[in-house]
Amino acid sequence: MVQIKSPEQIAKMREAGLVVAAIHAATREAAVPGATTKDLDRVARKVLAEHNAKPNFLGYGGFPATICTSVNEVVVHGIPSDDVVLKDGDVISIDCGAIIDGWHGDAAYTAFVGSGHASELVELSRVTEESMWAGIAAMRQGNRLVDISRAVETYIRRQPKPGGGRYGIIEDYGGHGIGTEMHMDPHLLNYVDRRRGKGPKLVPGFCLAIEPMVSLGTPKTQVLEDDWTVVTTDGTWSSHWEHSVALTPEGPLVLTAPDGGRAKLAEYGITAAPDPLA
Question: Which one-letter DSSP state was computed for residue 49?
């Protein structure tokens, strides 16, 4: 069953989403050469405390940290550690969430540590982020879940990969419903699987975390011995972007974007829903 939210509940999720946005801003500034991924976790904990918010990652299924810090070939669920020191040229994806009065926010971004990154890495992150926005733009009343998957996949497949070949759209992980829990039905693939059908129709009150994960090579992954860290099987580097989005009668509201998604959705000719906290 898909949890449909009231306008008041979406407003609470917007509060949680803005805390996530604040964590993103603080960790992005702190992700510099010489910092450890545990340093970034400490930054996130400080932001949560300042906003009287709870972490939704810490303790989830036994996860031992507040945020996920996934460096280079790590796709998702990297565990912050004092032993992982960021270096010039690294790429890091930071995934984090927050809870306000029982309502969840969840989002991720990819950042470049230092300078001197290969153009293929810059393009990988751009393609992944833009495919997320294509998916968000497809979150409109009357569409079905598969329309979001199709929008994400179509955008990625239309982008030429530097050096040839195709980007790997990660198969084993995807987006999800969000609300009173961080992960809820429905599961959202980042590609079209016709065996799954079209999925539910999108109606006001529908809330999703849309999160493409893309690699420079394989779509296949494996989990390391810590039972959390997910890496590409061929060692190619990856990118991960995510926003939590609510569908309202006035259109989509990107709960974890500071401006509610207004600027990016305008590029698609879409007006973002009014911010309930404005």
Answer: H
